[in-house]
Amino acid sequence: MGSARRRASVGLGLAGAACALLGFSLLLVGPRIVKQQVIKNVRIDPSSISFKMWKDIPVPFYMSMYFFEVLNPNQVLQGAKPVLHQHGPYVYREFRYKTNITFHDNDTVSFLEYRKLFFQPELSNGREDDYIVVPNILMMGAAVMMENLPTFVKILLSGALAGLKQEAFMNRTVGEIMWGYEDPLIDAINAIVPGMIPFKGKFGLFVEFNNSNSGLFTVNTGMKNISEVHMVDSWNGLKEVNYWRSHGCNMINGTAGEMWPPFMSPTSLDFYSPDACRSMRLVYEKSGKFQGVPTYRFVAPKTLFANGTDYPPNEGFCPCMQSGIQNVSSCRLNAPMFISHPHFYNADPSLLDAVEGLHPNKDQHGLFLDVHPLTGIPMNCSIKLQLNLYIKQVSGIIQTGRIKPVVLPLLWFAESGSIEGSVLKQFYTNLVLIPSLLDYLQYICLGLSIPLIISAAVLMAMSQEKCSLFWSSNKKNSDSNKANQATSAKKLPPVKGMVLREARL
């Protein structure tokens, strides 16, 4: 019985030691293994898991467009406050793919990323042939741009506008506003002020967006330094742009907005947006989970579109108006265009008070990015921006009437996408489930080692106690036998004479 317990004790002790050794090994080596796997699979390398995802983005992206119709255009011409009504969404499936992928010797890769949009009527609340009353963007923009020209030039333009039957507001279809329409005004303006509008043919807000690229990006591959992966080295050959009035505002910071370096901290993330002509910084808001994958949520701070008075680092983006809008005329042919959050969310209240029909709220109009912090890969995102036109009465151009100065919302859009299907399953298995199992296994092993070693010690103690009792009992019996033999010997009669007599016989 004692030897069986000793064998069981030795077996449990060895098992406990093995579990402890495995647990400590996983504790020390496990994180290193996970880190190496992450580094191997997130860098821009044809052998990495994320390369195909980076090259041909498998995530279904959708662009939802919302248009603002002016319900009282005649009254606005007389100085009334614009009353707006939102139409939409008009939803487009967005496909992105990269071409001209060229790897360089300095640990960078260059590429062009193209976008194609396809209208999705089943997901939309309206059709592309819906008519909407909006400002005559080309005419009103040109009027503000020509405000400081000599009066006779403005009168000449006003006469040309009358001859072309141009008015301050127009009734156009969604498709025309998006993808362009023929307008003789383009040729007329170029004839009067050569070079003011450096394009010909159709005019539309997104006429050059569909089936076009966002410029030549050169980014770091992360092959030598994983903390630099996806970071922009240059855009169109530039280390910084020249749209703005300060070095800080012209800097090209962060990534191209698709992925970020792994092992993120809950602070902020930067990316360069060719559409906004600037780098943007989002800040950490909270931790969460998307389909079981842990994420950090990043949102736009209130300072993103603040003016230089409220936030001095933004002074380089001026000339500024109220906080909450950014003047992008310097990168939009000097047209009086402004970008903002939808419905002037997080903007100066005076912008909201200047029009009717806007209802800003965070859930509908705040942008966000949910990023897996271990890999830097976005799991769910919705980038939202609003396009606005500054309109006003311009003396000498009678078509502008008595319009009061106002930053008038034209439309806003949301580019949204999330990882799903087989891509999500592969991502979850390789970069979430397996590391989590290794993490749990190390603690399970360490947890099992403690009761196993304690059980072995208890059995060993019990075995030793049993042996001690056995030897103590044997010794006691031996002493008792010796005492009994001595007592018996004293009671026996003398036999010496008898033995001698028998010997003589």
Largest sheet: 13 strands, antiparallel
Structural Rg: 40 Å
Low confidence ranges: 495-505
Beta strand %: 25-35%
Count of helix runs: 12
Q: What order do the helices and strands follow?
A: HHEHEEEHHEHEHEEEHEEEEEHHEEEHH
Shape verdict: elongated
State the secondary-structure class: alpha+beta
The end-to-end distance, rounded to whole angstroms, is 58 Å
Describe the overall structure.
The chain has helices at 2-42, 49-55, 73-77, 137-145, 151-163, 174-179, 185-192, 247-250, 349-353, 362-365, 421-491, 496-504, and strands at residues 61-70, 84-103, 108-119, 131-135, 169-173, 181-182, 202-203, 212-220, 232-235, 268-273, 278-290, 293-299, 325-327, 337-340, 368-372, 377-391, 406-418. The chain is built from 12 helices and 17 strands. A hairpin with a 4-residue loop joins strand 15 (368-372) and strand 16. It is elongated and about 115 Å long. The protein has 505 residues and is α+β, with helices and mostly antiparallel strands. Helix 1 runs antiparallel to helix 11 (421-491) and helix 5 (151-163) runs antiparallel to helix 7 (185-192). Strands 1, 2, 3, 8, 9, 10, 11, 12, 13, 14, 15, 16 and 17 form a 13-stranded antiparallel beta sheet that branches. Strands 4-5 form a two-stranded antiparallel ribbon.
Layout: helices, strands, pairs:
Elements lengths: L1 H41 L6 H7 L5 E10 L2 H5 L6 E20 L4 E12 L11 E5 L1 H9 L5 H13 L5 E5 H6 L1 E2 L2 H8 L9 E2 L8 E9 L11 E4 L11 H4 L17 E6 L4 E13 L2 E7 L25 E3 L9 E4 L8 H5 L8 H4 L2 E5 L4 E15 L14 E13 L2 H71 L4 H9 L1
Antiparallel strand pairs: 1-2, 1-17, 2-3, 3-8, 4-5, 6-7, 8-9, 10-11, 11-12, 12-15, 13-14, 14-16, 15-16, 16-17
